Amino acid sequence: MQIDQVEQLSQWLVATDIAVLELRGPGVQIRLRHDGARVEQIEEVAPAAVETMSAQVPRLVAAASSVGVFLHSHPLNDAPLARPGASVRAGQALGLLQIGALLLPVTATKDATVIGALVADGEAVGFGTPLVELEPLDEAL
Amino acid sequence: MIEILSASALATVQDLGRIGALQWGVGTSGAMDPLALAAGNLLLGNDEGAAAIEVPVFPFDVRFTGDCAFALTGADCAARLDGTPLLPWWTHRARAGQTLQLGLPQPGHWRASRAYLCVAGGIDVPEVLGSRSTQLRGAFGGHEGRALRQGDRLGTVALGHEQVATGFGLVPPALALPLQVDGVAAMRVLPAAEYALFTDTSQQVFWREEWKITAQSDRYGYRLAGTPLEPKAAIEMRSHGIVPGVIQVPSGGQPIVQMRDAQPSGGYPKIGTVIEADLWRLGQAPIGSRIRFIETSWEEAVAALEQSRRWLAEARRLVNLQRG
Fold it and tell me: Kindly report the CA angle at B184 between B183 and B188, in degrees rounded to 5?
């Protein structure tokens, strides 16, 4: 991430009530703390994380489309919708988000292989929380 | 349009029932699990009482002869659309020519026996006495007054709008409103008119012991097996009006619970009545499974019905938010 981008983020953060901003992307991870007066970067990119993120195969993440409770399987059974190593098709449900009585799918955006769930079964998640990590099929070839 | 592919299915077209026809001696009919039928319909934006296909015997296969939005509720039957697994209690979209296969009910967190296939708009069969339900005894209503057969083609009621949103589902009410005693599915029961005529021992047995649902159980009634229930003295009665849920005890002492296709009158003594709010639980209890009865009061029975209505209202609110 470029220094000027960090500064831009910091400026935006000053105008908000957000206390901590964490941003993750391929090969980069940044955490900014906002104490009400100023913004500072509080953590450098962990070396191990860099290694993972910069691996040759680009990884895909299915994220929460809503606030809800993340479920690995349908409430009627215990079979996980996406086991690590399983091939999934674009649009296939990898897990479910429960909002009261309503269930929404967490779907794969493209054909992929499941790497694994990033959030435990039954955990409450926010909008945009990365839920399932995938390896796109086309780019893996 | 839907074409039935299965040879002998015992599947029928059902809505929420022919309510108000008992005065003419016409039974109620309607879905054995009205909560599942209503949930499937609200997932599609239908009226809760739109007609659907009730499937009690598996496997059951249909072909969609036109593009169609549909919902599956009731028993989780490991459904597949052209081989692709489908989630239970969910709305899906089919293209013309695709085949839907319902397999055996899955032994999951809810043992159920009947699946509901709801379609956008509802199944289009003529209304008879205010209902589209199949009246098997009278051979009217539903599709030609009979169970569906291979080759039957069913139309759907035309939608007033273009597209129905799909791709979401509901947590089954069996999980949200569970009712069990010692791990066995239970139903709340009101003591009926002849309850006091049974021996004290039989009254205790009725509440404390398990009842097995025998193979002689269907949409007309469930014959139960357990310790025989004995009256204090022989009971002779004239035939009188009965409703689904009434538990009769014929001379052998093995109870019969009247279900949706029950005839509207009977002459056996009645020990109790399964409350309306719990009839769906019994309607889904598989043959061979065991059930328990819980003594309840009129007030609790009314409150239980209100609880079901609240569940449906909340489900409808969330689904409508999702449908936008």
Answer: 120
C-alpha distance from B96 to closest chain A C-alpha (Å)? 20
Q: Tokens in use for A9?
A: 């983020």
Nearest-angstrom CA–CA distance, A123 and B168: 19
Is the pLDDT confidence value at A38 over 90?
Answer: no
Interchain pair A77, B169: CB under 8 A: no
Tokens of B214: 């025998």
Q: What is the pLDDT of residues B66-97, one digit of tens each?
A: 999 999 999 999 999 999 999 999 999 999 99
Q: What's residue B77's pLDDT?
A: 96
Q: Which of residues 204-263 of B touch A (CB under 8 A)?
A: none
User: For position A51, what pLDDT does the model report?
Assistant: 41
- Token look-up 């000027």 returns A4
Give A30's pLDDT tier (boundaries 50, 70, 90): confident
Q: Tell me the pTM.
A: 0.87
User: What is d(CA A102, CA A100) in angstroms, rounded to the nearest whole number?
Assistant: 5
Q: Which two tokens mark A11? A: 């400026």
Domains of chain A, CATH where assigned = 3-57 (no CATH), 61-136 (2.40.50.100)
Distance of CA B275 to the CA centre of its chain: 14
- Alpha carbon A107 to chain centroid, angstroms: 13
Between the CA of residue B83 and those of A77, A90, B78, B79, B101, what are the distances in Å? Answer: 20, 16, 11, 9, 8
Q: What is the pLDDT of residue B88?
A: 97
Find which of A70, A83, A102 to mutate to test the B interface (most B CBs within 10 Å of its CB).
A102
The 3-state DSSP class for residue B306 equals helix
What's A32-79 look like in SS3? Answer: EEECCCCEEEEECCCHHHHHHHCCCCCCEEEECCCCEEEECECCCCCC
B180-299: CATH homologous superfamily? Cyclophilin-like (2.40.100.10)
The residue ranges of every structural domain in chain B are 2-170, 180-299
Across chain A, mean pLDDT equals 82
For B7-49, what is each residue's pLDDT tens digit? 866 999 999 999 999 989 999 999 999 999 999 999 999 999 9
Q: Which pLDDT value is given to residue A10?
A: 80
CB contact set of B290 (below 8 Å; sequence gap of 6+): B184, B185, B210, B211, B212, B213
β-strand partners of A17: none
pLDDT in tens, B173-188: 999 999 999 999 999 9
| A105/B314 touch (CB, cutoff 8 Å), yes or no | no
